[in-house]
Amino acid sequence: MMYVQIPLGPLQTNCYVLANEEKECVIFDPGAQSEKLIRFIEEKQYKPLAILLTHAHFDHIGAVDDVKEKYSLPVYIHQDEQHWLTDPALNGSQFFGIGSISAGEATDIISEEGILNIGSFELYVFETPGHSPGSVSYYAAKEGLVFSGDALFAGSIGRTDLPGGNHRQLLASIDKKLMQLPEETVVLSGHGSETTVGQEMDQNPFLNGF
Questions:
Q1: Start and end of every Metallo-beta-lactamase domain (predicted)?
Q2: Alpha-carbon Rg for the chain in angstroms
Q3: DSSP 3-state of 129
Q4: Residue 117: which of 72, 52, 188 has the closest Cα?
Q5: At residue 162, what are phi and psi to the nearest 5 degrees?
Q6: Fewest CB within a 10 Å sphere: which of 11, 60, 84, 187?
Q7: Any idea what the Cα angle at residue 78 is, between residues 77 and 82, rounded to 5°?
Q8: Short-list 120, 176, 170, CA closest to 150
Q9: Residue range of the domain that includes 123
Q10: Residue 24 parent element (H or E)
Q11: d(CA 54, CA 79)
Q12: pLDDT tens for residues 155-171?
């Protein structure tokens, strides 16, 4: 399988497209600029199977509806944020002076951790709250990848000053879930460059207590 990182929108939120050899793909966090994302998918002749959201903050959901409708896709979100998609007060857009951003309701609600199979894609869903109550990370074990959303970044961690954020909870999520993955696991974050579990274990100043 291969993945591509596509920064989208004013906050350059990372959308990821994970594709297999049959050109099927799943899309993580289509945050904005749907035309740019759709153009990429069309150029690659990919066949999207699903949209997977790590959480429902506005900068991760802005292109959901366009991409969903273009390809008739299911949308996955954790149950603790299923109502955030439609509510600019919950997803944070009304607080940033950029207008109201929302998306339609998700089709598939994640209620617990476990394996998620979509076509040939096998992903383990970890609940990693703290940045937001329903944050999840998607772990592709065979590929050695984890899509961490805004939980963990290269050299940093997610902010916890937005509604539902909890700093202590976020550190616990990172320690008990993400830091337990193999050190060579590539961490694909919601913003910035990729990193590895081992690199963050050794160098991330926010994790020195673990």
A1: 12-191
A2: 16
A3: coil
A4: 52
A5: -95, 165
A6: 11
A7: 70
A8: 170
A9: 2-207
A10: strand 24-28
A11: 12
A12: 999 999 988 999 999 99
Q: Which tokens belong to 145?
A: 């990848």
Provide the token pair at 147: 């899509």
Pairwise CA distance, residues 189 & 82, whole Å: 21
For 118-132, the pLDDT digits (tens) are 999 999 999 999 999
Any idea what the CATH number is for the domain that residue 111 is in? 3.60.15.10
For residues 15 and 41, what is the distance between their CA atoms, to the nearest angstrom? Answer: 12
- Whole-model pTM: value is 0.96
Look at the block and give the residue holding tokens 């509806």: 65
The C-alpha atoms of residue 147 and residue 150 are separated, in whole angstroms, by: 9
Structurally, the chain folds into a number of domains equal to 1
**Residues with Cβ < 8 Å from 30, sequence gap 6 or more?**
8, 15, 37, 51, 60, 61, 62, 63, 64, 67
C-alpha to C-alpha distance for 39 and 206, rounded to whole angstroms: 38
Return the number of other C-beta atoms located less than 10 Å from residue 93's C-beta: 20
Exposure of 35 by Cβ count < 10 A (0-12 exposed, 13-18 middle, 19+ buried)? Answer: exposed
Interatomic CA distance for residues 123 and 116, integer angstroms? 5
